[in-house]
Amino acid sequence: MQILGLYNYWIFIVLMMCGFYVVISRGNLVKKLVGLNIFQTSVFILYISMGKITGGTAPITVDQDVVYSNPIPHVLILTAIVVGIATTSLGLALVVRINEAYGTIEEDEIHAQSEEEAL
Amino acid sequence: MIDHLPALQVVIPLIAAPLSALFRPGRAVWLLAMAACGLSLLIAVLLLDQVLTQRVISYPMGSWPAPWGIEYRIDAANAFMLLIVSGIGTIVMAFARPIVEQRIRLPEYKQPWFYTAYLLCLTGLLGIVITGDAFNVFVFLEISSLSSYALIGLGRDRRALTASYQYLIMGTIGATFILISIGLLYVMTGTLNMMDLAERIPAVADTRTIRAAFAFLTIGVSLKLALFPLHLWLPNAYAYAPSAVTAFLAATATKVAVYVLLRFFFTIFGVDFSFGTMRLDLVLLPLALVGIFSASVVAIFQNNVKRMLAYSSVAQIGYMILGISLVSVTGVTAAISHLFNHALMKGALFMALGCISFRIGTVQLDRIAGVGRAMPWTMGAFVVGGLSLIGVPLTAGFVSKWYLIVGALEKGWWPVAVLVLVTSLLAVIYIWRVVETAYFKPAPEGRVVNEAPLALLIPAWTLALANLYFGLDTSLNAGVARTAAEMLLSVGH
């Protein structure tokens, strides 16, 4: 039961591993970035889960005693989301440049061209 | 004004960055960037001076008191790092203008953007060092990383683009690991302030969550500092980036990552947990030794001199990690002192290479034959930097190697001391290959090469002379380093 109760943490781990696997296994530079994005997004779920309290409401102070979720992890992850967007857009911009310079975005083809250059 | 120096340290380059994007290409934007760098250096000097008398400066950002708001906390260790980062930042900025105008892949009207990215990178590095808040470290880390990916991608060779892409992937994985670690620490302690974390971690240290946080942090930071075997992004990134960028990043970026390692292991987790419970020294020591040896050997067989020095950087990082894994005052002094000395020597070497590639367009070993006679001043700076890299007495490099060997002998680990000496001989081999080609091989016929312009030579020689100066006067690179090491080792107890 405890394992099921922690399902959001399981989702975090599964997503993280999926993203990580895509980064490692794919040769296409855009697909790698998609994997990297999933990898980063999984951490957002980790942070959001941390701050959530069952039955908790929004953190607005009222006179009655209410249980509210911790807003700090949520605010922190807002920053991390911005970082994620910046990383993805910079990565895609680099892929555009790589495509202009090499005429391909497949890692092995780029590698082959670089090898020829070195000879 | 003087009370707000910690904030200004970060804010000045941060404001100068978008301002410089508004300028037209030319001298004015460079002067603005130069002024911002110079002011940060001045502030770093003032802060170091203040810290040496008063020990710790605590600055609440925006006047929000410490555990709730972000605290900037400066002690001997990070004041020394601020000096390294802003000092190198200023000298390389002085070097950058001719490189930006002629040697980077940017149309002329976009040239001011180089300064924007450079200043943002400087902001990020200074921010990582100065902050006393764990999450703030991540934010500044990403500011510096993102701008350094952009800077590396500006190299003329198209392989700079793939190198930058590869660094982006590896760097983001590293930064995300650090983010996970900070999250796990927060969930166990409910705080992000470093001093608070240090107080609260011992009570919960014996949990899987804290151990996982420790592991994620170690891997994440090791990726950023290019610890063997996580160094694969580094050689290409350094080899194909514009020479001003290589000089700046080689001298500062990995050093700042080493500082993050020191800060987290010694101050936050504490010496007892990091090296007593987790036995991290048993992991770091073999990796450092294998890294030093293998990277030095690989460096010998490189044909691109920039790439050769990049592998040498991996080896030098090994020396720093070796110093940390000794877990003694002498060992950590060696590590911190080598942070400073390595910044001086690699800065000088990469700037000398920048002069060569500025004149002949390449740094392939077979193409630089005869350069020693055509560009005597440039090669002179290279030789001085090379001697310091080897660790010849009377140069800065000797100081940190000395402490490293003394530290190893204190522990009775004489094979480690022998290995440090042997790998210094490997450095002799790869530096000698360059010197031999440049001085004793005939220049290709019909090639006319002039000495590099003074705008490049003066910054390169400034660092070269600093290598000699700090080899004689060790009050800064050994004295302050020792104060910092004593401070780091006593906080944990």
Describe the structure.
The complex is a heterodimer of chains A (119) and B (493). By secondary structure, chain A is an all-alpha fold. Chain A has a single domain (2-52, 68-118), classed as Helix Hairpins (Orthogonal Bundle). Chain A is built from 5 helices and no strands. In chain A, helix 2 (7-25) packs antiparallel against helix 3 and helix 3 (29-51) runs antiparallel to helix 4 (71-102). The termini of chain A are far apart. Chain B is mainly alpha-helical and 493 residues long. Chain B is built from 20 helices and 2 strands. In chain B, 62% of the residues are buried. The model of chain B has no long low-confidence stretch (mean pLDDT 90). At the A-B interface, helix 3, helix 4 and helix 5 of A face helix 5 and helix 6 of B.
The CATH architecture name of chain A reads: Orthogonal Bundle
Largest sheet of chain B: 2 strands, antiparallel
Order of helices and strands of chain A: HHHHH
Which segments of chain B are poorly predicted (pLDDT under 50) over 5 or more consecutive residues?
A: none
Largest interface: A-B, 30 and 25 residues
Supply the number of helical segments of chain B: 20
Mind describing the biggest β-sheet of chain A?
none
Q: Report the sheet-strand fraction of chain A.
A: under 5%
Q: Which CATH top level class of chain A fits?
A: Mainly Alpha
CATH-defined topology of chain A: Helix Hairpins
Mean pLDDT of chain A, as a whole number?
87
Number of distinct helices of chain A: 5
Per the principal axes of the C-alpha atoms, what is the gross shape of chain B? globular
Number of strands of chain B: 2
User: What low-confidence regions of chain A span 5 or more consecutive residues with pLDDT below 50?
Assistant: none
Q: Round the Cα radius of gyration of chain A to an integer and report it.
A: 20 Å
The beta-strand count of chain A equals 0
Mean pLDDT of chain B: 90
The quaternary structure here is heterodimer
